[in-house]
Specification:
The complex is a heterotetramer. By secondary structure, chain A is mainly alpha-helical. Chain A has seven helices and no strands. In chain A, α1 (about 1-25) runs antiparallel to α2 and α2 (about 30-50) packs antiparallel against α3 (about 50-75). The longest helix of chain A is centred in the middle third of the chain and has 25 residues, at about 50-75. Chain C contains 17 helices and two strands. Chain C has helices at about 1-10, 10-45, 60-70, 80-100, 115-125, 130-140, 140-175, 180-185, 195-200, 200-215, 225-230, 240-265, 285-300, 305-330, 345-370, 375-410, 410-435, and strands spanning about 335, 340. Chain C has a two-stranded antiparallel ribbon with strand order 1-2. Classes of the chains: A mainly alpha, B alpha+beta, C mainly alpha, D mainly alpha.
Amino acid sequence: MLLDQIIFFIFAAIALAGAVLVVTSRNAIHSAIWLITSLLATAGIYLLLRAEFLFAVQIILYVGGIMVLFIFVIMLVNLDVAIRQIQFNRQTSVALVLALAVGGLLPLAHYFLGREITLPPPHVAELGPNTEAVGQALFARYMVPFEIASVLLLVAMIGAVVMAKRRV
Amino acid sequence: MADTRTTDFPNVTQTVLGADELILNMGPQHPSTHGVLRVKLRMDGERITGTECIIGYLHRGVEKIAEHRSYPQFAPYVDRMDYVAAVSNGLGYCEAVEKLMGAEAPPRARVVRTILTELQRIASHLLWLGTHALDIGALTPLFYCFREREEILKIFEKYCGARLTTHAFRIGGLLYETYDGFEEDVKRFCNDFANRVDEYETLLTSNRIWLERTKGVGIISAADAIAIGATGPVVRASGLKWDIRKAMPYAAYDQFEFDIPTGKTGDTYDRYLVRMEEMRQSRRICLQAVDNIPTGPIMAKVGKVLKPPVGEVYHSIEAPKGELGYYIVSDGTTQPYRVRVRPPSFINLQALDQMARGCLVADIVAIIGTLDIVLGEVDR
Amino acid sequence: MDALLHYFTQPQNYLPLIFILVIVAVLPLLAGYVVLMERKIMADMQARLGPMRVGPHGLLQPLADAVKLLIKEDIIPEEADKVVFLLAPLISVTAAMTAYAAIPFGPGFQIAEMNIGILFILAVSSMGIFGIVLAGWASNNHYSLLGALRGAAQVVSYEVAAGLAVVTAVLLAGTLSTRQLVMAQISEQTGTGYWFIFLAPVAFFIFVVASVAETNRAPFDLPEAESELVAGYMTEYSGFRWSIFFLAEYAAMIVVASLATILFLGGWSRPFANTRVFDFMDYAPPVLLGGFGLYCLYRLLKQPAAWQKLVMLIFGGILLLLAAAVALPLTGLQLGSVSVAGWKPAIHGGFWFVAKVVAYLYFFMWIRFTFPRYRFDQLMRLGWHFLIPVSLVNIFAVAGGLIIHRQQQVGLEVAMFFATLVTLAAALLFAWLAERRPPAHAVENEF
Amino acid sequence: MNVPTHWFVFLSMALFTIGVIGVLTRRNVIVILMSIELILNAVNINLVAFSRHFSQVDGQIFAIFIIADAAAEAAVGLGIIIAFFKNRETVLADEMDLLKW
């Protein structure tokens, strides 16, 4: 149905516009706000892909957790001075060309080789209730990676505490 | 308002976190500086590393005015210093001038003065309790306190026609005889009040949040308090049993029995407990006094025109906030040569810096509240 | 076009739109009356009368306040970041109001039934913190900034505790859908048949404390602590923008009250819905509403002015109408082919839901007027050193109890009782540990 | 599946490129960190899109791991920034030219 495609374009446009503004905003707080916008649009895209659980995780963890942390830090390190300085470094032009070249590879490949490289046809099988499926996979097949991820988080937590607590 | 551009601290920028510190300008317009006190807080995050009080926003030159008024004319002015304890101010001034003249108020006047002053002490402490609790975030005690304070103010109004700045006493005694039913009013108030103090205490004394907010906050040792010159509940909460009512009795305090409550640690909680107990003791004094009001004249013979002999006098009383002293120099005319007031709030306020260092920004509010300052008295 | 027309003639498609309109239209009014309720309760607890002048017994006070706020000058500080300053209240109110999408106010009254309903509400309401933080930052005022920093730290911390308490209820119900969570508490066929407050009282307690902190209400109202930070993040706001923050705060309060109702208090179900002895409680709604309505009419006679009588008449009439609506399903009338008795779940469900929400709000207000305010470090310590450990233990205990219940054929009530005992023991341990810790002022470099 | 999967791949690519540009060109470390979040997010879109395409949840699991990783990265990164800011009073990447201070 067409509705899905319209929704996709709306969310994609918001995500892309937000992303561009993240990179170009002078003020870090504005960057953060645009990043939040972009992340929310991405959450919408997850919903479009029937990944409801990921949608909730994206908003609770990414937007409600990580982005609050970002804004918190931006407010702590008062950036009044930083705003008035030059925002882009000296390698900007080179970086732009390189990044766009890498980013252009996919459209080029699609344009020239689009007919030869095709995705296998999509599976029609329904995934069933998303949360249950994710839970089953996470705690059965991906048990070890899950535990490793929790160790990673613990290490990060200790690291962050040590880092922020140190007084020189 | 937070305004860092006018800071007096050298080398300070606006950064919140980093090598430098944050300057928060608290007051003169702030909900919990009890008037127009302005405190500059030097902070590291939310932790206070230094304070600086800026006073004078309510300065009216009361002491200078005294030099151009006759002795009785100046009496209403002292009511405007500690305007929540006007009766106590008036008592101190009247007794100081009486001492200067060598006169003495008749016994009946002295007992009535004692009753009114103790009621005023209760009223002042009630106002302190209400606003202090409000500063710490408890909304309800304020209204309970005002309910009882209203009863006291009604007694004042019936006695002398004014509620706040009463000008109740005259040099040499009293101008007004007590009204019919004065004793009953005071007794009724005292009887009701016993339960009311318990009611406040049930709201606060054993409340966990209240304990956490006041215990160990704003500690000052007895030695430090003495060094600063702090008096009243501030020094008593640190453990020093110093009360002018006992040490140098004035009015009729030597006739009545009462205890001087003291604290141990000198923190905000002890000051709270001391003041609560003082209210009970004041009630006790009132009850004793109201049954024993002697009959007789209410005014000593001081003459129409007051001309004290050349000389000087210092007289101090135990005002609700501490030692309120008047130093009066007379050159033999109808007007004082010099009047100097020793206001308890002003001197107790000096303890602020010592109490606040190392506390959080929320504690400074509790500490200003616990010092029980009145800016009218600090600035004069 | 025909497809669209067809789409919007289906009840399941147009009903949500109507519900959205109802909620958006009614919520500001409702928030206004919650404020009036709060002021009246506060007045009652403080031996005064509260608003009495605008309308009889202050019944029109919310409208007067709204008009006052709307016509006040809208001040934007010169040094503020204008765009963010304007954006912040909108974020707050949007986050609060979006959460209503997943709340089932009754068996039929829900905008969107989704299989991650609880997660959706948690996710969306967690966005509200950005309103506070950005408002505080954009105002360019030290009080606002301190309020915002406090708000961010506080809400993020207590969200963890609230989330863990929610997990307990989700464990017991085995679903994330708000509607099925309620169903699990109503009947034994679809779940346990007990309100989860009885099965997991500790989780409910944790949720209550955390929800107070999350909505920045006293005794955890540190971001806007008026005696310390003037008005915290709202210091520079005035007029309409300030009232939007106000609306957001009260909307968020209603959201957490609804959440507590859904998770622990059985949603729209009547108390003891499964016990026949208590069936007389079905008559409580009409009696209560009718009683209030008649009392309004009785007070009508005492109003001094004609227009006040009119206002009283309107309020009494509305209450009597509601009473009639609630009484209707009990009459057993037949309207044509429709049996009125069939409407009972919908109508009475709404009543009980609202009643529980109001009771929860009353509790909020009660503690606000009773307790002093926590200090920031004490608040953090309470959250991280007590609530979060206890809720973790609680989850383990409840999960263990469920396993024992399922595998050992132990009754659910018994299993949950022992789970609660375990949790309480752990709570005592944590409280004891917290007592032993030195007080904050002695600890240097804590932050 | 009404939206072709390769649309999501293109969106992901575009977001990724923007993120890379941000990382390579900005001087402000915080914005660089945010650009990294953009890159991670682009990868997530890709994973979830293919998870949908093949009707397997594995992609979503990886996305969850990546979000966890992003949280860890943000915590450590921001911790470093705060520690650095305390010492040097700057958040500009090209002024961070000391390995030890």
